[in-house]
Design goal:
This protein is mostly helical. The chain contains eleven helices and no strands. Keywords: Membrane, Transmembrane, Transmembrane helix.
Amino acid sequence: MEVQALLITFREALEALLIVGIITSYLKRVNHREYTKYVWLGAALAVAASVGVAMLFQLVFTGFAAMGSETYLKIGIMIISTLLLTQMVFWMAEHSRDMKKSVEGKMDRFITAGNVAGMVIHSFLVVLREGVETVFFFAAITHGNIGAALQGWGAATGIAVAALVSYFFFKGTMRIPLKTFFKVTGAFIVLIAAGLLVQAISMMQDIGLIGSVMPHVYDLTWLLPEHPIDYEHYVRDHGVAPIFSGEVGVFFKALFGYSSMPSLEEVIAYIGYFVVVFLLVTSRRGQKSAVVEKPAIAALEEKAKNVM
């Protein structure tokens, strides 16, 4: 859970800090430092609102638990989080290059109109979006115990690393392009999303919401049990210990969605998810190539006409 929390908070906090940093740096560059305080005001209000959302979310989850329906809520959260995490990776890959230009354009309009409220609202919405997404993802990886994720070392470390990356980026000392950063972290986020999808399917099968053609495709408990309890049960039943401990299994389950005894549906969903992501990536690359090639082809045709 802590590794998941670290990656999620790193991505979300970095995106928020980059946008706020771009705004404040631009305001200083165009000699409008007096507006900087309003940007930070919006960001601070968004952080407070995100804490409120976390408390409200926890209250709602407690209500579902009291009604005995928390399992259904957990499943819904996991499936929606899978979609949101996947969308987040693609959105950042598409907009990271033009983010600076887009944000500065909005600030120009706010400065020209003297729209202080617009600056506050813009920074508020930017940070709030990341905060709400973080709350939702924490609910997914902790099965509803958002407080556990917020209090762990993963969330704090993710924020600290994001702050450091942002600092070095705006100081001009960071040589690695942000696009590379987002590609690497995006790959881990995709793994987390796939793991959440598989866990959702496993929970649906546990409560009988969906069946299974083959409940256990294989059994790797002898090698790597997915939980310390499974480790203890294996020792009890077989008299020998698995090669790796259950703590290692918990780590891989949290990060990659590992299961020592997956059903056929889990295996298909896991592989299918990566196939869909791969197809989406390749199709987007094809569309971008087509967009780049069209002007080049048109220029060549025009040149040929002029020669003739």
